[in-house]
Amino acid sequence: MLKFNSIENGEIFTRDFRPFAKNNEIIFPNFGEEIVAIYGPNGTGKTSLIKVLYGAKGTKVKFEFDGNTYTSGSTVFHVINDQNNRNIIVGETKDFLLGENIKREFELQKLLADARVSIIGDIVSKLKANHSIAAMSSPLLTLLSDAEIAEIVKDIVNSKSKGSKFETEVIITKFTAIPLVYQDISEEQQTMLAFLKSDYTSKESIIQQIENLAKKAVVAQPQVHEIEENTEAIKILDRFHKDQCIVCDSEDIDWAALLSAKTDNRTKVIEALDKDVQTLIQRIIALVPENDPFNIKTRLLEAVSAGDKSIIDTLVADITTIKKMFDRQVMNELATVFHGSDMPDKLAEYQKLLEEKPEITEEDMLYIEEIINNSMSKKLTLERDDKKNLRITLSNSEFLGKTREELPLSTGEQNFLSLTFEFLKAKNSPCPIVIIDDPISSFDSIYKNKVVYAIVKMLHHKKRIVLTHNTDLLRLLDGQYKRCYKLYLLNNTEGEENGFIPLNNKEQDMLISLEKLLAAFRGAIFNHINDVNLFLISLIPFMRGYANIIDNETLTDRLTQVMHGYKNEKVDIAKAYIELFGNKDGKIPDTYKVSVPEILTKTVDGVNILDNTHYPLLDKTLRHSFTYLFLRLLVEKKLVEKFSIDTNQHKQLGQIINVAYPDENDSIQIRNRIRLTSKKTLINEFNHFEGNLSIFQPAIDITDHALGKERTDIVTFVSSL
To answer: What is the CA radius of gyration of the chain?
Structure first.
């Protein structure tokens, strides 16, 4: 049971809804399908009720369900809006057709994709500017201690790939898992870091050569310092070509002979070195700057001169320390990439949506094949890929991302597709109750049947509340599964009985089944008639319509005599009823003759035509039917008499009104003509049942308040003529 204690939506609902104490319970059938149908004509507040249930801004609700009290319906009600509120979505076809959650899925996809491009660009920029990593081939990438991170970074800085080898989820997961570790780096270490980055990216990296040298034995070469000395002397002699020493000012030196001697000596010393050392020494002497922060030249020469490998090992250890600092710098940079970004949160939301989305089960696929595809001109294919992304194709073409103009479906097909996808979502929703607003509006009979089938069969594991103003829906529901629903009438009119008014099984059956209605007129109703004369008068229009349907022309003509205000013949309506429905236990008098003037002396004010404890809706219906007939007769009689209208030529009420007020240029006549023809109670369909034998329709569509107001307006108008 669902029990409401309060329903508020501005001033839309009457005071009876807050607090809500009467007609405030909705009881689901405890057999077969758990469906409740709530019938309410336009303007009753069905859409406003929907807004309350899903917690729209400015609404309040308090209700009890399954022993719990709620002040929000978000966890209880899964709402499927009507066509207008469901489909007014500006954007791509996917938004228009797929509903809220799936729409959000694609929104998140786009947000993550756009944010990924920005983040990747930011990473590339920072790695280049701050860490000298500008390409996937950068040797500096080998210094990263985490091989997986290194591979991701390598792909990110690849100008062609831009990280495409790795999913956004992987990048976010890996980078956010990197610990942020503070480093206290001295000015000297900063200098070493700069040297490391500069040297390591060089094709002839000295550091890498030293690291290779550290793997080998070092043989003592005391003369190794002479290589540097001779090199510098050679540079000076070769540059200046002077017989005077530029250092000590000695005269008459043979600079050419001296140059040759220095060159020979350097060559001799180099040739004495190990081959690996030869090349390295020459490069170091030539390339290492004077301000080398690692003091590589001095330390290497000392190591070779003394044959002390520990000096090289110490040098390599110092370099390794700086390499670790570099590694940490880069890792810290990556660890902060997503600081201040909502990408991780958006990813988490996206992943949750994917987890909550329905799997395409065999049942769902059959539903798609049998219900959707068989109802459209184009074939729809729906599946999830291995990453749980939804893919939809229409006639083997990509379906999503197209504009509406590009979609090869009619408006009706689009609306149907939208609704059926909403059913799929509702089927898998955690909410126990599905609210469906006006599901068959604007659909043809084929679509209506399929929609109702889906409500009954596709959602059979859910409790369902269907709001409608269409009695066709009620009949279709019953056609799918006998008595699968309980019917309530929603009323929301100040001064009347308001709330969810339940119908008993008898009246529910009579409302949707002409067979059941006629059976009641032939039997059960006889024991519950309070005023037999008013009962017979109120049924004159229905009896005339039924007589016409069964081709009883004589009876149709007789009853017509009390269906027009300009007639005066007496008609035996008791005999007419007996002829149509019989007279069980003699409850109907053998004869009851009545004429239009006599009918116009009657009233149903304060009268219960039937016992309203057994037939409350039918009693209301008969009082309404009497009023429709009364007002019609009154207007016709008065207009014909007032304007001497020839009823042989102008028999119908519409014709009579037009003849009474024919002037298209007279504002008063125009106003009077419109005033009468616009009244609901005077519309032919409410007095002529040949085309629709649903006797209840007018009574459930017009409130007592509205009917009373129209009666007052019409009687006042007629009295003024």
So the answer is: 47
Shared domain check, 133 and 158 = yes
Residue 496 belongs to domain spanning: 1-76+431-502
- CB distance 106 to 126 below 8 Å: no
Q: Which residues pair with 434 in a beta bridge?
A: 78, 464
123, 334 Cβ separation under 8 angstroms: yes
The tally of domains found in the chain comes to: 4
Same-domain check for residues 519 and 450: no
Span 359-374, pLDDT tens digits: 556 666 666 666 777 7
Q: How would you list the strands of the sheet with 390-394, edge to edge? A: 380-384, 390-394, 397-398
Q: Dihedral of CA 330/335/338/344: which sign?
A: positive
Q: What pLDDT does residue 541 have? A: 92
Same-domain status, 126 and 207: no
> In this structure, is residue 68 part of a structural domain?
yes
Q: Does residue 296 share a domain with residue 174?
A: no
Q: How far apart are CA 698 and CA 394, in angstroms?
A: 44
Residue 270 confidence (pLDDT) above 70: no
Location of structure tokens 């920072």: 126
∠ CA 684-621-709, rounded to 5°: 70
Residues 632, 546 share a domain: yes
- Residue ending a domain, among 502, 535, 565, is 502
pLDDT tens by residue, 219-254 = 666 555 555 555 555 556 556 555 555 555 555 565
pTM of the model: 0.65
